[in-house]
Amino acid sequence: MDLLMLDRPQRTRGRPALNAVEAVDEDKLLGLAFATFAERGYEGTTLRDLSKRLGVSHNLLNVRFGRKEDLWIRAVDWRMAQASPFVEAAFDEPADPEVRLRHLIQRFCLWATNNGDIVSLTNVEGCRSTWRLDHIVEHFVLPFQRRLDGLLDAVRLQRPVHGLSTAALMALLVQGVGYYFCAVPMQERLGAGREVDDIHAAEHADRLAAFLLAALLPPVA
């Protein structure tokens, strides 16, 4: 036996070397995983298919993330950590509550133009009672709802606010405004494709925000 072979690190057949596992860019991997879960659903996504799309071995994903359930959680947490701060920054602005609420709605509508993958995932997962929905609600939806409730309560101390529940308001924002920008093929078939293209989406996000705010905050007598 070649003595040089004795100095080489040995690994189990069929499993990637540690440096191979570390070499895959995690943002790329999690981004593709999230996009696939959003497009195909949890049941329609397999680690084997993801590994082919990434050009890596199936075992590499197993070593890096373990079960498909673990990869789903990692991908969702990673994507939400990317997307949430843009909207939630409005909660912490040093401004009047009504101003913060207006900025929050405006930011959410603009957010919807760039995060169709999150809208797609919540549309799919929100219609079934699963551990995945529990994770989304517990870690992202309920914390946001509590902050929104607090902000609306602060606004109500100053002026009238429409008695819409925060659950209904969030549905209008995500499944309403979000779907409008997410379902581009639908809008194109309805003759509204120009409203949701890259050039005009921000303009129409402002219009939708103004529409919602006019309904939520009636004129003060």
CATH superfamily of the largest domain: Tetracycline Repressor, domain 2
First CA to last CA: what distance?
A: 93 Å
Radius of gyration: 22 Å
- The level 1 CATH classification of the largest domain is Mainly Alpha
How would you explain this protein's 3D organization?
By secondary structure, this protein is mainly alpha-helical. It folds into two domains: 10-66, Homeodomain-like (Arc Repressor Mutant, subunit A, Orthogonal Bundle); 82-216, Orthogonal Bundle (Tetracycline Repressor, domain 2), CATH 1.10.357. The protein contains twelve helices and no strands. It has helices at residues 3-6, 18-23, 26-40, 47-54, 58-65, 68-88, 97-112, 116-125, 131-156, 166-182, 184-189, 201-216. Helix 3 crosses helix 8 (116-125) and helix 7 (97-112) packs antiparallel against helix 9 (131-156). The longest helix is centred in the middle third of the chain and has 26 residues, at 131-156. It is globular, with a radius of gyration of 22 Å. The N and C termini lie far apart (93 Å). Mean pLDDT is 89; it is low at 1-21.
Please render the helix and strand layout as text.
Layout: H1 3-6, H2 18-23, H3 26-40, H4 47-54, H5 58-65, H6 68-88, H7 97-112, H8 116-125, H9 131-156, H10 166-182, H11 184-189, H12 201-216
Helix pairs in contact: 3-6, 3-8, 4-5, 6-7, 6-9, 7-9, 7-10, 7-12, 8-10
What would you say about this model in short?
With 221 residues, this protein is mostly helical.
Comma- or semicolon-separated keywords:
single chain; 221 residues; mainly alpha; Arc Repressor Mutant, subunit A; Tetracycline Repressor, domain 2; 2 domains; globular
